Amino acid sequence: ILNVEQSPQSLHVQEGDSTNFTCSFPSSNFYALHWYRWETAKSPEALFVMTLNGDEKKKGRISATLNTKEGYSYLYIKGSQPEDSATYLCAFASSGAGSYQLTFGKGTKLSVIP
Amino acid sequence: NAGVTQTPKFRILKIGQSMTLQCTQDMNHNYMYWYRQDPGMGLKLIYYSVGAGITDKGEVPNGYNVSRSTTEDFPLRLELAAPSQTSVYFCASSPRTREGNGYTFGSGTRLTVV
Asked: Bridge partners of A58?
């Protein structure tokens, strides 16, 4: 069983603040790293698929970086808005037989206070 | 474009009853998955399929069965429902884990076993 850890578990930020979360995953046999945004009572929605060490991806005010050698990825949100309130999941795929499936972390729950 | 369609949305089962959760996708994805989500535990993989006629166990397969007779459909069968199967179930589909835009999830099925 692969270990995918996310921190913090939850956080509250004021509207307009920038914030970031961490995803840690095994540094060996890397295949892919995904980020998802999961709003309450909805389904997870994909944000980024990252495959190369040093990858940086951006979508609006949200961006992510990837370090496969040390086994971590950061998700950044610039100028948080109330609509950013959600749980953010990362998910890891290992090479070989594991490349067909993602192992999800437990998520970071973000609450943005107006 | 419907994406991933999951039915039913809610169901209450009595212990020992059986049911099938339906999942259909119209994106011609080869890969399909069933996850369950329990509070504080994150998404756990039950079964997955890499193409029609091919299925494999995930992390928590006990008490479940699947089939994949077509690219579009991936039903999940509970044969003898137990209280431990009370959970929210998500079906998802994707291209390869390094390709595309990540998983597309269905809207979820909230199952209660009493």
From this structure: A63
Give the mean model confidence (pLDDT) for residues A42-65.
95
Q: Is the CB of B43 inside 8 Å of chain A's CB atoms?
A: yes
**CA distances (Å), B92 to each of A20, A27, B36, in order?**
27, 26, 11
Question: Residue with structure tokens 């390869």?
Answer: B96
CA B16 from chain center: how many Å?
A: 20
At residue B96, the pLDDT reads 75
Nearest CB to B42; choose among A48, A99, A106: A106
Q: Does B90 touch chain A (CB under 8 A)?
A: yes
**Test the B interface: residue of A34, A49, A55, A59 with most B CBs within 10 Å:** A49
Evaluated on CA atoms B101, A46, B109, B66, the torsion sign reads positive
Give per-residue pLDDT as tens, B20-64: 999 999 999 999 999 999 988 889 999 999 999 999 999 999 999
Q: Return the closest-CA partner of residue A109 out of A5, A22, A4, A11.
A: A11
Work out the percent of chain A whose per-residue pLDDT is above 70: 98
Q: Do B104 and A89 touch (CB under 8 A)?
A: no
Q: Are the C-beta atoms of residues A95 and B97 closer than 8 Å to each other?
A: no
